[in-house]
Amino acid sequence: IVAAAAFATFLLVVGILWWSGCLRRRSTLERDLKGIELQTGSFTLRQIKDATNNFDAANKIGEGGFGPVYKGILADGKEIAVKQLSARSNQGNREFVTEIGMISALQHPHLVKLYGCCIEGNQLMLIYEYLENNSLARALFGPEEFQLTLDWPTRRKICIGIARGLAYLHEESRLKIVHRDIKATNVLLDKNLDPKISDFGLAKLDEEDNTHISTRIAGTYGYMAPEYAMHGRLTDKADVYSFGIVALEIVSGTCNTKHNRVKKESFYLLDVAHTLKQEGNLLDLIDPRVASHCNAGEAMVMVDVALLCTNPTAAARPSMSMVVSVLEGRASVSDILTDSSIYASKFDAKKLYGRVEGNDAENNSQVKIMLRDGQWTSSFDLY
Which residues form a coiled coil (predicted)? Predict the structure, then answer.
């Protein structure tokens, strides 16, 4: 009897501690939410359950950094994407609040639109517009049955759209924001194949009075700028670098990072581009699926811009507004070419990311290792 009573008391204490933790978690979230100015709508849990058929597995379209993402249809027929915060999420409430606060203040044709949020009980959800054509990564180099036919004009349109979205984040919005995880998986395509930048969970406010932000490293191998990957020095030029990688992927139709588990070898598209440039064979980088009917001049401008954006020296990279001007033909590559010797230097991406991978624990990083996982379709990081 004594043992049973002691066990019951133990369970009661554990239950109280657990419940108080849940209450504390909820009150902390509510306090954080009161501290930000929301410019979005509010949805009830009943509305979201009805829209997703009670979170039916058949409506699950991906897995984001927070948890599962579901497709839903509201009572008025509007299609939505519901990003649900997992109780076991590594990102947690702070990133959830950050994402709500930042996205609610951002309105641009090339950013995923946030319709609102649902905060009810222990349910924490973001409700976005639904993008019919999934991610750029899946369209370009996902499983063959999911790839889309992207002709050259469409690829150029997508590249310019991404650049415009980043220029808005860096230079035009009231909040100056560094996304810090720009990659093809985080670019979604609407029904007209117009690009929209998604996944602001890693985004950082760009403090006007600081030349850079020193921060824990969080991002994706193969897309991180050298100064950020190695030292955690974060500026808008880190996004410029990542954009350059994505631009190379758009031109080539090839994922930037590949890893051969058998041979234990890694492949980096940036290294290939530099090699082809030195050999005078940059046209070989163009995706064979569009090579015969693409504008070679436009393709070379895009590649040249990509190589300038991926300059190992952050200060030598152009601003995104200048990138937009060049891609749209309102300026030339020579207008942003400040040091031809730096531009021509070969950058060893394989060597860099090998060093970063070996320093993960030392850097206390939260890096997504795409070269090992090979997850470059939209099953992960969607929305």
Answer: none
